[in-house]
Amino acid sequence: QVQLVESGGGLVQAGGSLRLSCVASGTIYRIRNMAWYRQAPGKQREYVARLISTGDTNYADSVKGRFTISGDNAKNTGYLQMNNLKPEDTAIYYCNAVVETVLNTGALYWGQGTQVTVSS
Fold first, then answer.
1. Sign of CA dihedral 30, 110, 72, 69
2. Residue 115 CA to chain centroid, in angstroms?
3. How confident is the model over 32-54, as pLDDT tens digits?
4. Most buried residue among 27, 32, 94, 95 by CB atoms closer than 10 A?
C-alpha cells in the first residue's frame, strides 16, 4: 500500500512564498510522475503542475513563472515551491503520483491535501 502525505500549507500574505512537500511511503519501486492539483471553495479541482520521471515539468498557465515543481527520488518526495502568491491561489492543494510497486506496474495515488490561504 502506498500513502501520500502533503505538508507545508499555511496562511501567507499576498506576495509571499510557501513550499509544499508530498512524501510517498510504502513498498515503492519507482515513482513514475507526480503532480499537484488544487481545489478552491465552490470550484472544481484544477491542475497545477506535473513532474515526470524524465525530469520534464509542466505548469498550468495560472502558475507559470511563479511555481516550481521538483522532486527528490531518494526521499520519495515531491515539492511545490510557490512564490509571489496571490489571493486566488487560496485552495486545498493535493498531490498525486503514479507509483510502481512490487504488486503493480503503476497505480495512481492521492494525498489528503494541505490548505493554502493567501491574504490580500
1. positive
2. 12
3. 999 999 999 999 999 999 999 88
4. 95
